[in-house]
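Data card: per-record layout.
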Amino acid sequence: MIAIIDYDAGNIKSVEKALQYLGAETVVTRDPETILGADGVILPGVGAFGDAMQKLQEYGLVPVIRTCAERKIPFMGICLGLQLMFESSEESPGVEGLHLLDGVIRRIPSDGGLKVPHIGWNNLHFLKQSRLFASISEGAYVYFVHSYYLQAADERIVAATTDYGTLIHAAVEQGNLFACQFHPEKSSEIGMQILRNFISVTEQQA
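The structure for this 206-residue chain is written out next.
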């Protein structure tokens, strides 16, 4: 069973529907026991960094998420979920993120003539072998909607990059922590394969 963390953020339903389409048993929850008893956990989200961290704090989910990481439960952040897994964001100065991984969230530069937010399809460049991108070809296109991007402190955790006026760390993988800045649930068959790969990781851990 995959637990999808409910903290009043956008995009939770579309992630749930995509996983159910792939045959995964899912539950949308903020119950600590359910989350910690799951085979895998997903933190989706669309919205502002500071508001999201406030909701996670209000619902008592920050220690639950950190326990997931400590117990090595497969954990995947999507879009805002990726950003929350790091230290801080220029979107919300002074707000501390979950800090599961080292790195900061920067605003996409708007001086290059590109529209911000970045909305649309971009291709991925893979930096290392990754369970999340198993059987996916170099240059695969996925769908992004964001104004802020990850700058990881250690490039060894970066599984994929893309370019949109600047180099964007588009996905990371370290141990059982996974995250994508793009939306796999909106990325057609490539995105479905990424979610299948995450489901496979959870099944191997079960």
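Known properties of this structure: The chain has six helices and 13 strands. The chain has one domain: 2-205.

See the next section for split statistics.
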